[in-house]
Amino acid sequence: MQDENFHKMSEMADSDIKDVHTLNILLCYLLYKINRPVAIEQLYDIAVGTGVINYFFYQDSINYLLDNKSIEIIIDDDNVKSYSLTQKGVICAHQLKSFVPKSQRDKLILASLKYFAKIKQNKEVVIEYLPIESGGYYIHVRCLDVKADLMDLRLFAPDLTQAHMIGDKIELNPAGFYGKLIKLALNNMEEDIDLSDV
What we know:
- The protein is α+β, with helices and mostly antiparallel strands and 198 residues long.
- It contains eight helices and six strands; from the N terminus they run H-H-E-H-H-E-E-H-H-E-E-E-H-H.
- Helix 2 (20-34) packs across helix 4 (55-67), helix 2 (20-34) packs across helix 5 (87-96) and helix 3 packs across helix 6.
């Protein structure tokens, strides 16, 4: 009875890929194309969260690839666990990719590109240039976070050219800009008043 329920759940979680061996190659190919370790949660979100791969096949494939030593788990300095492709996995991606239809490879790669683009967009700054009736522009800077804006700031510039210059500099390193602004605020002190006789 339990096996029947498992099979029904597997069927309901429909995806194009119904073969674990094909999925093994596809996951190696994805990690090869990304070309860096991918956090465990991120790989799951790309593969299963986007609906490209069935949850049950994904779990079977990950277990197989780990046992087979085609992928390994590494832990970075922030204690984040990631999947990394081994040399065996690289060979699998190179030599066996033609066994997976290009449409399926492209679908998963596209899902990963969209996923990482969304992460990057959520971490970046949003800058708008707002004209002021009396002349000049406001540079509206928002540093985004998951639950709330880290910063919502307006800076004045006398013209659009200077506004863009300031905005471009902020976009070079939004986290650095935010950090320097916070440091400046925390180190700001009241000016000393000199009461000595001159």
